[in-house]
User: Fold these one by one.
Assistant:
Number 1:
Amino acid sequence: MKNAIPTPALLVDLPAMERNINRMAEHFAARPCKLRPHFKAHKTPEIARRQLAAGSCIGLTCATVAEAEVVSLLTDDVLVANEIVDIDQCERLARLAVRVKVRVAVDSQAGVSRVAEAAVVNGVTIGMLVDLDVGQHRCGVSPGAEALALARLVDAASGVALHGVMGYGGHLQPVRNRGERESRTREAMIPLIATAELLRSSGLPCEVVSGGGTGTYDIDGDLPGITEVQAGSYVLMDSDYGELDLPFEQALSVLGTVVSRKGERCVTDCGHKTMTMDHGLPLVKGLPGASVAALNDEHAIVTVPLDCELVVGDRLELLPSHIDPTINLHDAIFAMDGDSLVSVWPIVARGYADERAALD
Ligand SMILES: Cc1ncc(COP(=O)(O)O)c(C=O)c1O
């Protein structure tokens, strides 16, 4: 029963999540491009297990080595779609490669040599994807000559093997207008695909062309040459992605208890220590006319219609605006089917405890 769950608590609407998983799996089922769901969205093995079981997945994507260690118990094909340069993390990545196929993104000479050194010491080969900046201006080298030069370096190094290229258009994911999202995504991904062809015509291997996210999964996934899509948020969604015309449902909420009610002002016990505000304030679930006015540390201040029947002690759910950092704030997810609690899933890969373990 929802009313018995201690608040604040993170809830997943299980049937909605299953529908999201199945819709995405169905989308990729008949396409040459495959899905590599991004684990960073939820960090929860039980969710990843269901994504893999639904099919159309060729492995999982991670953002950190700690996530990769967790998912290596679920799949034997792991992509760390991020630059790994810390010596201890390179060592952990190499140890992981003893058991499963590991690929990692790289955008520097130092990145190649640090990963390569750890791989040689451990007697393994780590796959590398040259990370291209497709317009987000975060990590990545420029498409074309710069990417080719780095690819040659990877190809020549011991302990690593060139597997391909990747490019994540993070700036394109939230573009509201579908037509604009489509045209800008095509424009951004063409240099990625062209660089893959440049590598091949230069005699280098390039079997993987990886990219895409929830906002552009069906655009990237249909571009000839893209081999896998790294979408993550689709599985649970958030209110920011809810602004787009995507076929996925809001499946994640933060459950709070009403601790104060004065007229239109209703206060619950879930503030921004329970959900982030980097993509805006959350929405109120299932209460027409209600909106969140502010989040304090421990409080959500919600404006409700005067005739709304909520009283102190009642429960209220909010839909977070950004799932990844919100989930990282919690220890567990309560999996619900309507009002019934089905299971409690530990968010195994949350936090940075594993990184700090290197100091022990
Ligand atoms: C490299 C990379 N790939 C894929 C994704 C997945 O994006 P989304 O959660 O929007 O599906 C992200 C998200 O930030 C990312 O950083």
Note: The first strand starts at residue 9 and ends at 13.
Number 2:
Amino acid sequence: MSTGPSLKHLDVDVLPTLIVRTDTSQIISFEGTGFLLAPNLLLTCWHCVRAAPPENCSYTTKRPDDDRIHFLINIQQDENNTDLATANIPLLPGANLTLADSNYYEGTDVYAFGFPLLNVERLPGGDTQLALDFRYLKGYVTRVFWFDQPEFGRTMAYELDMSTPEGLSGAPLMKMGSREVIGVVFGSNEVTRITAFARVDPDTGEREPEVHKVMYFGLAHFTEALKKLTTGATRGLPLSEYLKEDFSNRRERYVFYVRGALVGSDARIELPCGCGTVRLWDPPHSTSDLFCSWCDSRFTIRGLMDGAAAVSTPEGIVPVIGTEKGLVIVDDGEEADDEEETFIPLKLGDRIGENFDPGSEPKAGPYVFFIKPGLIGSAHTIILPCMCKTVLRWPPPHDESALECRACGARFILQVVDGPADHVMTGDGSVKIIGANPEDLE
Ligand SMILES: [Zn+2]
Ligand SMILES: [Zn+2]
């Protein structure tokens, strides 16, 4: 595992577990630590989240640099009856934590990161404010042993020469120098030794009490237990198997394009979430609290005019729910007050160069160019300026295999667009349409 400079801080994915008042978001208490190993999946200890929260309160989490509070939904204990648990939250991981393949043994250097001994500060007005201070703790595995965990029975555990203060429960235990999670911190092991027996001094007759020496060791759930963790949030699979799923369609927020005439009608609208769950959106189609019941991601609805069948977004072409055939329009991904200004009616035609297999992995790109219809196959040489500032002159007969930058090796894809515009708004800003101006051609 490399820990290059591009990795985000651990506090992106290692998060505090908090109980807040549902109506006011006031923080009531801090319950432990949790962490993200996959999109929408928070892992923690069951003993941190199993108690029913007080009335009108809920378990939540938040990232330190983000004001949003996220409710933990679908809180579930590991089906193997261990002290591990999962919850769904609408967050994607960013700090590249991975699950260890195998168990580790005595002598392994480890560290943990979490939110022990957190302080809830009371402000003068009676409000509370959380001092979100993380701690980094390190040590090593002193032994792997059977631990009798009250209420959970015998469990294989890592004993650690490391302090694991209250609140660190649920924190990932990681192999030193990596972001490989090998276990989950759950408490400490107090080992008491009698160093002197009680006795009565024969000379003075004074009673001397028994002297105990207490040693504290950290405790963490064993790698094997974490790999086998199974809940509804892992779709009934052991965690190690679930993590092999394809998460590339997951988003923190989903935008659905819906035919405007359907919203407010008596139609049931199906909203397919990237997690695989289809949320049924029934009349009267309230947009408040619209989220996925499984992964908890937020949904945003954009109602579109009749005739728009698909939207070109920075992430690809997205169909409009409720319209089968019609125009493709472009959404630049920006929030707009006036939705209509976001959309320019454009008709997308062929994509050229997409299916050409260069035989080797392209070195950069592909870069997409927008081009007016009628130019490909004409007698014009088409001027394509690459991102690397090298210009490709693409001569007739416009052979797809020549759609490649000679300087940087990038592949080019040409998207034919028809319509009145000379620019397309994309996620990278305004892009000119090749052929809208004479200098694009020779
Ligand atoms: Zn979902
Ligand atoms: Zn180039």
Note: The radius of gyration is 29 Å.
